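User: I'm preparing a small set of examples for a lab meeting where we compare how different chains pack in three dimensions. I only have the primary sequence for this one, and I'd like the structure in token form so I can line it up with the others. Please keep the answer compact; I'll paste it straight into my notes.
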Amino acid sequence: MTSQPQPEFHVGPHRVGPGNRPFVVAEMSGNHNGDLGRALAIVDAIAESGAPAVKLQTYTADTITIDHDGPEFRITSGHELWGDRNLYSLYQEASTPWEWHEAIFERARSYGLIPFSSPFDDSAVELLEGLGAEVYKVASIEIGDIPLLRTIARTGKPVILSSGAATVSDIDLAVETLRAEGNEQIAVLGTTSSYPAPPAETNLRKLPIIENTWNVVAGLSDHTMGIGVSVASVAFGAAIIEKHVTLKRSDGGVDSDFSLEPHELKSLVDESYAAWQALGVPRLGPTEHEAESLRLRRSLYIVEDAKAGDVVTAQNVRSIRPAGGLEPKMLDVVLGRRFTQDVTRGTPLTWNVV
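Assistant: Understood. Below is the structure token output for the 354-residue chain.
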């Protein structure tokens, strides 16, 4: 039985997949608070953090819902952030105006960042194609929009699927839909589609299952507070980590409560890289940087001067640092033997002196 090739794709100069540095995606979402200047400042902060990509969401209130005030068109009362909000007004507030996209993409590219977006209908894909988007994201709730997935797949660009609230069959259908259009550049992000998400519901153990079941790049779209869950995800194979970003949570906004501030984003970039470096390979044994520790390991040393013929005792031979003498496990073997020559304190005990 032959194993499947390891999933991987390129986004600009970045290789994304197992064995590569985590691809950190900074999601602006609605944190621009309706101000293009603030949106561009968020891009500046993302660039300074070292994250390689900035993501938008491309929709209008009219492309994602309709202006209706029936109970079905309201967020459930009691929702932690948006309880009882009307969908249309919420999406009006949170959407990124289409006329801003070009300026945001240009600012991102001026830093070498990868700008991309989640389109919510075909017209959004058309806009993003005109801007030269290099990768696409499918939001969790859109994973079942098969016509939209087909449109995105036909661009030939890598597709990142969020899987919040999705069943196994939802994910399977989405992946097969993309592949049926000839697109094999697929990532699936483990996602908890609640805002903020409790860490206990993140279930990082599903990431290897995602990768192995569908032979896709696995990652995490993280809506928990802080960076701990994101950093931990690297140990479970997350090759992509997405987090919402704002300038300052206290400024408010629809997504600010569960978004990172710039210094936290930098910590995520740095610590996820450290976590990835720490994964290593499945073997035991000293590393090349442990040479000094090996030199300082305990061994048997002569700790009192002795004459040829004297008996080796626990008083004149001890297990001490550094290395150089016989291993400490040999102490019981040498005790009671006699020295074959005069020895001085500080000499490593070796077989040629007993």
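A couple of notes for your slides: The first helix runs from residue 36 to 49. The chain has two domains: 12-59+95-278, 291-353.

User: Perfect, thanks.
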